[in-house]
Amino acid sequence: MSPNDGTVAGTGEFRLIEAVTAGRKQPETTLLGPGDDAAVVATPDGRTVATTDVLVQGVHFRLDWSSAEQVGRKAVAVNLTDIAAMGARPTSVLVGFACPPDTETSVVTELTQGMWIEAERAGIGIVGGDMVRADQIVISVTALGDLGGREPVKRSGARPGDVVAVCGRLGWAAAGLAVLGRGFRSPVSVVNAQRCPEPDYEAGLRAADGGATAMIDVSDGLLSDLGHIATASDVGIDIRTADLDVSSRLTEVGTALGADPLKWVLTGGEDHAFAATFPAFADLPEGWTEIGVVTMPDSGVTVDGKKYGHHGGWEHWR
Ligand SMILES: Nc1ncnc2c1ncn2[C@@H]1O[C@H](COP(=O)(O)OP(=O)(O)OP(=O)(O)O)[C@@H](O)[C@H]1O
Ligand SMILES: Cc1ncc(C[n+]2csc(CCOP(=O)(O)O)c2C)c(N)n1
Ligand SMILES: [Mg+2]
Ligand SMILES: [Mg+2]
Ligand SMILES: [Mg+2]
User: Which residues bind Mg(2+) 5 (predicted)?
Assistant: First the structure.
């Protein structure tokens, strides 16, 4: 698609978000508006963190690849990592649900079971929702969270000289997607990573308490998501591939499929690991690994000092 063809594909996902958010005046109660993993709003009772992510059948999941319970777990998990990436603790979720009339009722109850399993993993519940008709299954989850007195860790706080670190696996869900896309169902470790991430929601809190200057959850791909930190913070970021964990399991799957496992680690989405920046020489919180450095503005996101030759991650409509 060309940029000027008048379609959303031509505009692109991130320019479209810019087009629908730029220039809108927010009330004073919007402490942090669109542009981060979650918003922060002031209420007379305090502050609330809020975020929403939509999952569409055929785009985000297939019910011949995943059980309905796994899809339900994923729908909640991908929202709770946006709350955690602000340095907040989830407090509740609401679930908008759309499906065709001939959808088996058991699919809806199994999806719900999965959503409750993941919610309970984070110590929260589903407190409301909505049910409507549509041509395919759409799950829209809204998650709320609480900062517990902390300042939100935004995408915009990285400074040149900070270290870049990650917590959680990278590349596994993309390897699973490649496996499923070729009609295979194993190895189950990577396939299950694609079906549902298993995020450590406390990792975001540990990062916030450990002085993280910026943070994001890796939904689209490490390079793409670090690109959001680089843009918001007006800095560059350089990743050292020698410090990335390319697991032997990914290497095995890559060899079997004729694919590059490092590309999955750098650009694969849906693992919902956390990436953050910390002041140089800070002791990194438990579970966090240094993978790079924040550089001067305008250098973009580089890999071993060079521009990466592929897309940095998933983009809808591309
Ligand atoms: N239609 C919209 N109206 C207002 N804000 C939007 C809209 N779509 C996205 N945003 C905002 O744009 C920012 C980036 O959204 P994006 O969906 O890329 O972030 P994310 O949820 O962290 O990533 P992902 O969807 O890959 O998990 C967020 O702050 C989001 O709230
Ligand atoms: C059936 C099927 N086809 C492709 C994919 C891959 N995929 C879909 S959305 C996404 C990025 C995150 O999305 P978002 O930005 O909406 O959070 C990725 C990597 C999948 N999961 N299922
Ligand atoms: Mg996010
Ligand atoms: Mg989103
Ligand atoms: Mg998200």
Answer: 220
